[in-house]
UniProtKB/TrEMBL annotation, chains A, B:
Transmembrane segments annotated in the record for this chain: none
Identification of the protein by name: Polyprenyl synthetase family protein
Species per Swiss-Prot/TrEMBL record: Chitinimonas viridis
Keywords: Isoprene biosynthesis, Magnesium, Metal-binding, Transferase
PANTHER family: FARNESYL DIPHOSPHATE SYNTHASE
Length: 282, 282
């Protein structure tokens, strides 16, 4: 994935250099790569060729990276630390961060069109649609807008869940589905099970993020810890308490694993990832 | 086009409302719609169905609108007036402008995948690739980065031209080509002629923009006039002088029109648009 991302991003030696450097800085050399890992793990279910998964994985990771760059900007979360390094607008400047985020989003869609990623072009178009839907106003960007509007506001658990389903869940889900498009077709019932798994993983990811924001320190996280409480943001921990939030994460993991039962050993990587997402320390 | 754009944008009544309102504010109720007009005019060459052209035209206009929203932000041009109204970050706030621009870019790619836009899905994938290439680091965003780096810097005419080919030209060119994909296939020689026309129009558009920035007033333009000189930006006028710049625009128009000769009456709208682009007053 690191090689694939490096190859798909414009070279830092080429004009406009500062933009390209900022794009590479935002994407390379850091990050858990959870979304590309999900693409690859779902690809294993359908015997997908590695090269297709590299492109699909790069696309979701670029969308994720662009959202972090913009989210960290002074007019949003105004954060200075990401993946253990200065954020893009700190290392470069605000204008370059804005443009680099913009160009990373475009590069994500470009990555889905550079070579055949599914057996049928119509399926590849569905992949583009899926990524767009997961990233835009009905997905990630919409979730960020709700998040922005909810600072200092009391949210109910369903409202919080809805926000996270959009903000984080949609792209996690898209990662799994994108991987599954890259190989042999799944039966419709299997696709539904996988989709359910993907949705549960999206929620589990966010519950654990909220727990880590309270329990982990900044050095381990590579980003500023305790940020949610400092910004008076509603989280699973603030709504449920730490103990209940951990219970919720465990429940989500169990339910997600059950969705994989019928896939047998081909789902081994997806099971490992479910375990990692729930039990990670950063 | 206004109806098509209104229908493709998320409704202002739906959550997150502020994001949706900002997206609609940025796109609806203003703008010359030059890019969608080029999509439609090129569509006439190939008997393209109107509904396809509406989606393709909406996609380019959303990319254009997102770039204006971000370009006007305080960390970029810091402008308060656009299309005769307060800019998005002034009417809403910086964070909403950032997210609205982001979500508009996504909506553009989504608009290219919502229904069949070409006879072959593989051609529709080429449309997505074309728009991505024209919008990203190798196109519009790259041009903006060069523009940013060139404030107060002496640029040669070839350097200025290169910047504009990316910043404005790429999306103008994409508009024409997207329209031409929506109908009957063009012969390869015809496609080349049309592509040449599109490239020349992209340059002509920018030369005239530079002339208008000097000659027109803010009320006529609907955006702040005299901005280039105030920001010490190199322009065709600052490099060539006003008289030479006008001559250059006329030459580009003549050369562009010559590319359309073989298309006969089917190119009537493209000819009208070429005339409008060069002789417009705003």
């Amino acid at each position: 994935m690191e090689l694939a991302l490096g190859g798909l991003l414009p070279p830092a030696s080429q004009l406009p250099q500062r933009l390209h450097e900022a794009m590479r800085y935002a994407v390379l050399g850091g990050g858990k790569r959870v979304r590309p890992l999900l693409v690859f793990a779902a690809g294993e279910l359908v015997n997908a060729p590695v090269e297709r998964l590299q492109h699909a994985g790069s696309a979701v990771e670029m969308i994720h990276a662009y959202s972090l760059v913009h989210d960290d900007m002074p007019c949003m979360d105004d954060d200075v630390l990401r993946r253990g390094k200065p954020t893009v607008h700190v290392e470069f400047d605000d204008a370059t961060a804005l443009l680099a985020g913009d160009a990373l989003q475009t590069a994500a869609f470009e990555a889905l069109t550079m070579q055949a990623l599914a057996d049928e072009p119509a399926d590849q178009l569905r992949m583009v649609k899926l990524l767009a839907n997961a990233s835009g106003a009905a997905g990630m960007a919409g979730g960020q807008a709700i998040d922005l509007a909810s600072v200092g506001q009391p949210l109910s658990l369903p409202e919080l869940e809805h926000m996270h389903i959009l903000k984080t869940g949609a792209l996690i889900r898209a990662s799994v589905l994108l991987g599954s498009y890259c190989g042999e077709p799944l039966a419709s019932a299997q696709r539904d099970k996988l989709d359910r798994f993907a949705k549960l993983m999206g929620l589990a990811f966010q519950v654990v993020d909220d727990i880590l924001d309270v329990e982990a320190d900044t050095a381990t996280l590579g980003k500023t810890a305790g940020k949610d409480a400092a910004h008076d943001k509603p989280t699973y921990v603030s709504l449920l308490g730490l103990k209940e939030a951990k219970l919720r994460a465990a429940e989500l993991e169990a339910e997600a694993l059950a969705c994989l039962d019928e896939f047998g050993t081909r789902a081994a990587r997806l099971r490992e990832l479910a375990h990692f997402i729930v039990h990670r320390a950063f």
